[in-house]
Inverse folding.
DNA sequence: AGTTCTTTTGCAATCGATTGCTATTTTTGT
DNA sequence: ACAAAAATAGCAATCGATTGCAAAAGAACT
C-alpha cells in the first residue's frame, strides 16, 4: 500500500505455490498450461494468478530457458555520424519490422550505434539478450558485419548483396534502381544529370554506379556526383551549394533518397525553377510522403513492407537453425509528377 | 568451430575464472572494475576477457541485480485499430526517445498494443523486464493508464494533462494549440472553419475544444468538426468526402495533425483549390516534413525533441524513486505558407 | 615478536523460473 | 482383488552473475 504496490501482491512462483497449496514446479507447469498437471488444479492456479495479477518473472525464465524472445534491431551510423535515428527511411522500415515482430509475439530492442571500434556488433550479439539481430543499413561497416555473420547465424541485414558475402542481406537491387532513375531522366530528354548522395556506403554507391551505367549508352550526356549528407540540417545547405555550383548546367537530378529529393525540390521551388519542366528530379525509396507532396515525387520504389517481411522471415528461419539466403528485390520506377 | 562459434569460446564467468586461476566472484568484480580487487589481477582478467571475447550474460546479471537497463516504449492504438505503428508522429517522437535513451546507455523495447482488455499495460509493466515505461499517446485509454500509474511509478505518458490525474504526462497544451490555429485562420479573415481529426482521445478533443474557444469571441463564424482517422489509406478518402460535404462552404481548415493537413492540401490541389488563397490550412505537430513540402505548412509546433528529453528525464527521476511532475509545454504557431 | 589494521580473495547464498527424475496416487485391465 | 499402467505432484538441480561475509595475506605499528 504505502509503497505504491498493489495490495497483497505476489512476487514469485513460490508464494503463489504456497497460496495454492502446491509446489513451485506445479505452478510453473500450470501457468505454462502443460497437460502434465491436472486440469482442475491448473485452472485453479491460473485463476489465482489472474486474481493477484501475477506474471512470472521474465528474466528468470529467460535465464533458465536460454532464450529471450527478443530481437535486436541495430542501426549503425558509421559514415553519418550526425544522421539522426529519426531518419524517415529507417523509421519506416523499423515501423514495419516492429509490426511484423510484435505481431508474432517477439519483443524488439533497438540499439543505435555509432561504431567506435570494430566490436560494436559483437557486443550486441554477445550480450546474451537476443535471439537474433536485424541490422538496418550497412553504412560503411560491411566488413565488421561480415566478420560477425561468420560466427553468428541469426543475423539479417538490410542492404546491398554482393558475391561471396556470408551475411544474409535483404534489399533492393540498388544498381538497377539507379539505372531506372537515370534512364527515366534521359527518356524525358535530360542531358546534364547530377547525382545527390553520399557514396561511402555500398547501397548508395551502387545507385550511383547504376545511374552511370544508364548514361553509358548515350553520348552527349553527363553525370556529376555530389556527396550529400542525410543529416537533415546540413543537407539543405549542401544541396543549395550543389545547385549554385551547377547553375543552369543541369536538367535532371537523381537523388539518392526521397528526403534528399524533397529538399532539392523545395530549394528549386524557392529559386523559381520549375520541377519537372526546367529540372526533373527523381527520388529513391518511395516513402509514404512522396505521394503526399506537391509535386508528387517520381521515385524508385523499394517495397519496404515486403522487405521487412522478408527480413523477419529469414531471421526466423535462421533462429530455427535453417539456412536462409539473401533476398534481392527488384526496384520499380514509380512515375509521378516530378520527373 | 563446427557449430559456428568462435574457437575456444568462454561461456561463463566460472570458465574464465578457472582460466585466470581465481574465483568467479573475483572475475565478476574485476569485470565490473571494482577497486576491491587488485589492480593487476583486475587488468589481467579484463585482458583475458577481451582476448576471448567474453561478455557476462545479461540475463543472469539482470535477474540477480533485479534491474534490466531496459525501458519499454508502448504505443497504444485504442481507437485507431488500423493506425500503423509507422505513423510519422509516433515514429518521430520515438526516434528522439531512442536517441535520448541509447545515449544514456539504456536499451529500449518497443511494444505496439491494440488494447483488447484493460490489462494490456499491466502485462507490460509487470513483465519484469522493464526498469520503466514510456507510453506514447493516450489514445482512448486514459483510465487504464491512470489505474496502472497508481501503483507503478516509473511511467511517463505523452499526452494531455488534466487536473487530478496521477499519471505523469509530458505534452503540449493542446487546447492552446487549437486556439492558436483557429485564431490564425480567423485573423486571415476566414469565417467558415472546419476541423479534421478524431476526437476520441483527449489530445485531439482538447485541440478541437481550443479551436472552438477561439471562435467564441467572433460571431458570424462557424466551425464544423469532421472525424478523420489517421490510418493513412482511409484518411484520404475521408478527407475527400469531408470536402465534398463542405463544398464551397469553407475557407479555413484546422487539421489535427500535419499528416492530415498534408493530405488535405494535396486533395485541394488536385481539385484546383488554391491554398492558402481560397482555403487556408493549418497543421499540428510541426514534423520535419512540414517545412519540406510545397506550400510549406503553417502549423502548431510541438517541440518533440524537447518533449522526448522531458519524458526521459522524468522517467529517470521516477526510476530513482524521486517524484517528477507532469510537463505542459506551450505550443507555438509556426507561420509558413499554407495559412 | 606480537598486535592491529588493510588489502585482497574466496565461499556460498541468492535472484525466480524451469524441468528431469522420482514418488505417490488413481485408473485400468484381468 | 491384485498387478500393471497412467496421471499427477514434488524434489532438487540448474541457468550465470552478484555480493555480504569471512578468511587469508600482507603492511604497519608498538
Amino acid at each position: 500500500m504505502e509503497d505504491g504496490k498493489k495490495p497483497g501482491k505476489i512476487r514469485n512462483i513460490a508464494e503463489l505455490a504456497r497460496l495454492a497449496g502446491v509446489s513451485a514446479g506445479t505452478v510453473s507447469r500450470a501457468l505454462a498450461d502443460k497437460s502434465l498437471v491436472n486440469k482442475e488444479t491448473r485452472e485453479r492456479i491460473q485463476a489465482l494468478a489472474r486474481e493477484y495479477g501475477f506474471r512470472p518473472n521474465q528474466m528468470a525464465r529467460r535465464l533458465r530457458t536460454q532464450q529471450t524472445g527478443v530481437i535486436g534491431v541495430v542501426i549503425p551510423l558509421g559514415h553519418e555520424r550526425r544522421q539522426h535515428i529519426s531518419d524517415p527511411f529507417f523509421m519506416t522500415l523499423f515501423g514495419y519490422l516492429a509490426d511484423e515482430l510484435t505481431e508474432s509475439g517477439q519483443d524488439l530492442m533497438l540499439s543505435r550505434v555509432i561504431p567506435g571500434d570494430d566490436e560494436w556488433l559483437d557486443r550486441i550479439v554477445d550480450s546474451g539478450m537476443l535471439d537474433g539481430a536485424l541490422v538496418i543499413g550497412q553504412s560503411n561497416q560491411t566488413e565488421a558485419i561480415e566478420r560477425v555473420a561468420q560466427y553468428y547465424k541469426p543475423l539479417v541485414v538490410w542492404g546491398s548483396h554482393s558475391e561471396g558475402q556470408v551475411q544474409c542481406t535483404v534489399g533492393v537491387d540498388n544498381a538497377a534502381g539507379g539505372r531506372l532513375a537515370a534512364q527515366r531522366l534521359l527518356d524525358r530528354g535530360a542531358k546534364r544529370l547530377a547525382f545527390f548522395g553520399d557514396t561511402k556506403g555500398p547501397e548508395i554507391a551502387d545507385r550511383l554506379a547504376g545511374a552511370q551505367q544508364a548514361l553509358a549508352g548515350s553520348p552527349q550526356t553527363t553525370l556529376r556526383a555530389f556527396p550529400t549528407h542525410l543529416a537533415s540540417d546540413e543537407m539543405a545547405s549542401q544541396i543549395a551549394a550543389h545547385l549554385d555550383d551547377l547553375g543552369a548546367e543541369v536538367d535532371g537530378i537523381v537523388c539518392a533518397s526521397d528526403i534528399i529529393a524533397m529538399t532539392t525540390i523545395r530549394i528549386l521551388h524557392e529559386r523559381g525553377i520549375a520541377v519537372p519542366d526546367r529540372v526533373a528530379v527523381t527520388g529513391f525509396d518511395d516513402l509514404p510522403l512522396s505521394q503526399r507532396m506537391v509535386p508528387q515525387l517520381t521515385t524508385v520504389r523499394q517495397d519496404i513492407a515486403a522487405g521487412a517481411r522478408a527480413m523477419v522471415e529469414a531471421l526466423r528461419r535462421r533462429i530455427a537453425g535453417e539456412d536462409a539466403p539473401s533476398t534481392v528485390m527488384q526496384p520499380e520506377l514509380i512515375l509521378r509528377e516530378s520527373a
